[in-house]
Amino acid sequence: MADWTFLTNHAHVLLCLSRDPGMRMREVAQAVGITERATQRIVAELEEDGYLERHREGRRNRYELDPAQPLRHPLERDHQIGEILAVLQPAATHEP
Fold first, then answer.
1. CB 3.0–4.6 Å: which of 22, 29, 56, 95 could bond 36 by disulfide?
2. Residue 80 and residue 89: Cα distance in Å, rounded?
3. Which domain covers residue 45, as residue numbers?
């Protein structure tokens, strides 16, 4: 299998935090396959640009995503991150 993926680490971090807003940086780093330091840098960049907002809950952080934020590349600016995240969420299971 090739070493590249279609989504960036930034997208992977957003996806993790959209699925579990209380996920710890260590857990995000493991899921994405990057260092905890790289994860912290990505989260800081996403916060700085308005894609994430951090809320302190006791000793933990909880992250709130802004799904209305546009994708950053000029080819994709007419789409919002919420569209991408919605497509990548696990399919809902329906009970018979």
1. 29
2. 15
3. 9-88
